[in-house]
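Two quick folds needed for the group meeting slides. Do the first one here.
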Amino acid sequence: MNITRLGWAGLELEESGASAVVDLLQDPGIMVDFVGEPRTALPGPSRPGAAALALVTHLHADHADADAIAAALAPDGVLLRPAAADGEYLEVVATKGAEQRLAELGVVQRIVAPWETVEVGPFRATAIPAADGFGDPQVSWVVEAGGTRILHAGDTLFHGWWWRARMRLGAIDVAFLPVNGPLVDLPHRQPPSPRPAVMGPAEAASAAFLLQAGLAIPIHYDALHRAPTYVQTEDPAGAFLREAAALGVAARVVEPGARVDTTAPRSPSVPAGY
């Protein structure tokens, strides 16, 4: 399976002529009012309109860019996603925009429950439980194709399902883990929590260790952050490499738009200067 890291938390997967996208983000839209303009690139898939499969871990706009997903999918492509949030306006406002836009664009969607597996072309995708930092429905995805098994953890908090994921689905070759550990102050979640809304470097490294991942790659950092609304932890990628090395976990930074080399040696490495 060929894997390209896109922007923020996005991935493009390619196998046997088919492609899939995960947590695609190309246009932050109204999010710029809260977190500012993107600070790093947000590249799209290499073959727009060709993806057989799109996956989203949850329906927040930075993980479910509806227009980008619609443009990425082939005419017969499908979006796999968790269930919709329910409740009053302030409970669901963070997911409502993506829900409405996906419906307007006519994106074919399938709701997938935790531990459910769906096969689309060469891709076998299993949703595993995850814990959203704002109380909205979220899953992580384990995707298998061409003899490679990856995990994409969206922007989950640390939790206790890592062991079960490995027990039920097998060893993870490459784990893509959020590392920015932000403190967040948003109008629909008040008072703001004094605890991070996403895993930080130490928690992400611990998750990779429990998964016994062959390689761990940080995602969900640097592109979006602006005080006082959304403030990431200091040096998230560098701190993650250090934490992973301390646990004996092979880890590597992959820049947006770059392909993941799954054949390179997987010894823990920390860049010079860290």
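Then this one, please, same format:
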Amino acid sequence: MSTQNLLEEMFKAGVHYGYSKSRRHPSVSPFIFTTKNGVDIINIEKTNELFEKAIEAVSKFAASGKTILFIGTKPEARQQIIETALALNMPYVGERWVGGSLTNFPEIKKRIIKLLDLRDKKEKGELEKYTKKERLLIDKEMEDMTKNFQGLTGITRIPDAIFVIDPKKEHIAVTEAQKMNLPVVALLNTDCNLKQVEYPIIANDASVSSITFFLSKVKEAYTRGSNGLTK
């Protein structure tokens, strides 16, 4: 796809809409095209330059067989994050980031193992020996753990990188990734500090159309990379 066509797609998806000027983080100022009615309009040509670097990184992760953890808990991002991760057979967090998911992974792994064990026992009818009240408590525990760890049940080690929608909202996850020296690829709006992200994509991170656009391209890039294709 030509750059012009890609920019047209971005425009149609509304990726150029930032937040109000009053919310702008100084680090994104060079990427603002103009301000209209108090709302920052992002320069999508500069966004595309950042996006190309991010896509190249994703392709390299794929070519090396690296695991990317997809994170997006805001309502606008949740479904798209989950669908993208599932399509790529990657882990995800779409409900709530549990503190320590990266920095204290051994403990998180124990809880995941417990969830899988309880599921297995329930399927085999091994929980029938408990009283009705005890089974209700076990079901509630499983429900809570499923909400927190469903997207992580397939991993046995810390992921190699993370992809985040809105690093300001997911600041705990980003901080943990930084402590673990994991590359961070992120879709971020004008209220975020782009210097906290290794591969920032400055664009609208609050609309379904914008989020869907970028995730679709990330999915394509990872698929190509895993197949040994660079373009």
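Slide caption for protein two: The mean pLDDT is 95.
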